[in-house]
Automatic annotation (TrEMBL):
Protein name as catalogued: Branched-chain-amino-acid transaminase
Gene Ontology, cellular component aspect: plasma membrane
Segment forming the signal sequence: none
Limits of the 4Fe-4S ferredoxin-type domain: 10-42
Keywords annotated in UniProt: 4Fe-4S, Aminotransferase, Iron, Iron-sulfur, Metal-binding, Oxidoreductase, Transferase
Record keyword Membrane present: no
Keyword 4Fe-4S included in the entry's annotation: yes
Length: 231
């Protein structure tokens, strides 16, 4: 009893986000995600503060903790000063560290985030760049985006003379010194180790599901397939 709660309390977001929930439900009432998903942040906070290991582990294995959009609408409205989104962030991190995230459909998508946004940060210094938003991965962007994607140098070059090149301004190519510093930050803070943990657990789950490890096929399937059981 309380093992997972104690581990959660090691996360500063948990200590900042949970003081004394009285189950008023204001967080759920203002939550945009609760309008679309089978999602109740009040219930999540209530489960966590029970300190019940089985219930907390079930949360970390579920899709529920991945529905939060981290908009922080809950933060200024809680009469007790709680931040359910912080609690959910702490749950997500612990779920990833312990490998529970691969047991849910939404959780398994963390591999795609790591390989796109995560690796793009280490490769370019940016979370998202135009070339990362590939039309085949984002068909919702439509045909206009396909044209922009194919003509990015010409289009973005009109707004920045340093687009994807050394210089000053948005979307410039970062210099080697800046990139080396960024990599050191990831090394010192454990970011790269965290990425490796996501890869390790994803590979294990992929093999359990019959894939040849966490290959491109597994990543694309987890990224694009949706059971539609979340609403």
């Amino acid at each position: 009893m309380g093992k997972y709660f104690d581990m959660l309390m090691e996360d500063v977001r948990m200590r900042e986000g949970l003081h004394s929930c009285m189950n008023c439900g204001v967080c759920t009432g203002v939550c945009p995600a609760a309008e679309f998903y089978n999602y109740d942040p009040r219930q999540i906070v209530n489960i966590v503060q029970t300190q019940d290991d089985d219930a907390i582990e079930e949360l970390m294995r579920s899709d529920v903790i991945w529905y939060c959009g981290e908009c922080m609408s809950c933060r200024p409205r809680c009469p007790r000063g709680n931040t359910p989104a912080y609690v959910i962030q702490a749950l997500r991190t612990l779920s990833q560290k312990l490998g529970f995230f691969v047991e849910s459909e939404k959780g398994r998508q963390q591999l795609a985030l790591k390989r796109t946004i995560g690796e793009n940060i280490l490769r370019t210094g940016y979370c998202v760049t135009p070339k990362l938003v590939k039309p085949e991965l984002h068909p919702e962007q439509g045909t206009v985006w396909e044209w922009i994607y194919e003509n990015d140098e010409e289009i973005y070059g009109q707004f920045s003379a340093a687009y994807n090149r050394p210089g000053a301004g948005a979307l410039r190519k970062l210099d080697d010194r800046s990139m080396e510093e960024l990599h050191r930050i990831f090394d010192v803070t454990g970011g790269k180790e965290f990425f490796d943990t996501i890869e390790k657990h994803s590979d294990r789950k992929a093999r359990e599901m019959g894939y040849d490890g966490a290959d491109d096929e597994y990543m694309m399937d987890t990224y694009t397939k949706n059971s539609n059981e979340h609403y």
